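Final paragraph of the annual report: two paired records, presented back to back.
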Amino acid sequence: MIDVMMRHKHLLIVPGLLLVLASLAWTTPSTVRKEPNGWLNVRLFGAKGDGVADDTEAIQAAISSALEDRGGTVFLPAGTYLVTQPIALESGVSLVGASQRSTVVKKTNDTSNTDGFDCVFYARTKFGWHIQGVTVIGNRTRNPADGAITVSSDGILAYGCSYFFLQDVRVQECQYGFNLRQCWCASIENACALRCQSYGFYAWNSCTSLTFKTCTAWATGGAFKLWGCLYSTIISPAYDYGDAGGHPEDPFLSADGTMSSGGNYQSPGCVFYLAGSTVTILSPGTENGYSRYMYCEGSDVTITNPVAERIECHAAPWRFIELRGTAVSSVEITNPRFNGVVNTLPPAFNRCGLYVENADKQRLVFNRLPKLSDSFGEYEYSKRGVYTATAQQVTVGTPVPVAKEVVEHIGLSQPALSS
């Protein structure tokens, strides 16, 4: 019997070896590095989060490992993670920080990815990804000697993506905060753009069905820019200190002069820049800024319960609400509360309140006509193209003369829009 066992001992060894190999096959690197809840901790992939080490490769390795598991959650504990390359996001992978205040990912240079984009996080043609509880910092800097701004990186850039979700994310010191291109069916919620040089939220190049909910832009060069963005909704947004950059009373100008508000009060952006878009905006609020309220071209826009407090014009051209271009535009505003909208320069054609360039193509409709301020003089409203809810052409109180160049620029108008 012993002789038989010895002659066939390979039959005993091989099955045991197969069991060991099978066990090793299931013990993948991601399994070894998972938290008890199944999350992949970037610290276990070598990330330091100490604000000194380059954590690019470690974060990217954790995301790649989650992708190998057909999706999962990558966890970034509290700390500051420096990166030198855009972090590539993947389909089905969530990136979750400890909290927006305690988990920071900061880009330290101007390096672009292979697609030529300079940003902190990047996703192209990915779906079902998610970022939550993180602060993202770009490479915007200010020269204290002359106030010159240097910036190249966006915060989060999504190109051709769908069904993704951003929640409790703050992006600061970037060119654009959130840059969405050719994206659809996506949501950004409880997000903040802070001290970005240009717009905090930018959606363009054929985006559809986007939702922005309780999003805030602070001291950026414009709040929302939607260009070719259809069937989208902006819910309860806030925008403070818009385009305060360069102003003598910039609230974010640091003592050493290296940090400041975004934008430029002498060449401001808009709270809402809308071109070729269909948008519904609910209960927006803005205050203490220098940005224009709206530029609209070829768009269909509905705004409900807007509030604007203490907005100053320091630039030319500057129009609080401006409809222009050759395409049909319709803007309907319900229950506006515009208080303290002030023109600090002498009244002029290129510094006015409500401006409609072509009343044959464009109309601005209110359920009640807002009062801006006497600082705009005869240029508070365009002569034509502004209507009440009854679609009757507005007569602004006691008739006031409208400058000759305004009449000539607008031309004749009819209540009905032509196609």
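The closing record of the year follows.
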Amino acid sequence: MQKGKISIVIGGMFGSEGKGRHVEVMTRHQTHGKINVAVRTGAPNAGHTVYDNHGTKYAMQTIPCSFIDPDVELVLGAGAQILPELLYKEINMIAPLLNRRMILIDKNAILQSKSFMKREQDLGMHARMGSTAEGCGEALKARISRDGSVLTMADIVAYWNGKVDPTDKVANESLARDIYEIDQYLTPLHQAGLIQIIDTQAYLNQMYNSGAHILLEGTQGAGLSLYHCPDYPCATSRDTNAANWLAEAGLAPNLNIEIHMVLRAYPIRVAGKSGFMPNELTWDKFLEETTEMRTLMPDLLARFRTALITAEEQADRGEIIKNDVVMKALASLSEEDNALIMPYIEKTTVTKKVRRIGNFDTFYEKYTQINNPDFMVLQFADYIDRQAAADLIAKYGEGLIPMTTMEALNVFGAKFAEILYIINNDW
């Protein structure tokens, strides 16, 4: 019997490497074979951006980005944390593309109710370490405690079937706490046949054994790993490397696996006190490195730099956060200047805060050692030269561009040569 294949897409930096875009390319263009099943686990604190065939943009925090192909089965594995309102929103958002598909959710996935979000916000997690404060860590903490204070999808099925154990006081208290979110969001999805609660571990292994190509969509980035981050506690609440995504999905590590590690020409971290960032750049220094801004819009760059200086002078020195300074600087510019500069300045998918940015660095070699990727995908090459990237897309179309190393060096110049040197000599 022909066995299947598992493609794992992971981030090799601090998140926002463009994993959603790579999944989109793999799904639409079948660059590594036709995808049959797409799986996502983890928590809803990471957003992956994807575009459908009509160019409509979606930011997905729960459902795998391969939903853009109507033939791909969609799975939320055992390690998933389900935020009911968000799942309801995402399913209704992509409903026209589901093509009568159901989202298959593992019975051991947990319900991440808003009560966990409130706990993290009360703890000031965003101010302390740049956390999204979506409640993901608190929900996982409750899961680890094993005291019944977090509900699994199996508990919700029992509720739907009228089989809740009346003697289980803690579980009933949890059900009473979360009953509104269940009835408001999950019950309508269940009644409409849009979700199905199953043993996804058994399903995925059955599909693999029948020859299916499974795409496992990792979230966040290897540098945010709870175990392998550079400066704990500035980390997320779980491991974010390939082995963990396999474990959360219930797939063995010795199957036919290929690992895709996605990197960025300019790595980022979320705003605030989010931890170590090698070779960090201020946004004006980054803009100075971009070909267009440096050569075509030097006056705009000068105005932005002046606005940054003014915003820093006006900020409270004891509580200065770079995101706030950048936002104040942008607010002081004209609408015309903002329209020109905003395509170069990134905000996070979930929190909408201006990101921190840095130069490519040998530091990230650590995560290639942990994951031993079969493919390293460099995203955001357009930051090196936006016009050169646009010309390539016009010539070749979207997808993986067939370029030799020398062609890439000729197009993108010294910055690309620097990145390539790091990858080849240190990795």
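The CA atoms of residues 261 and 376 lie 5 Å apart. This concludes the annual technical report; the extension proposal builds directly on these records.
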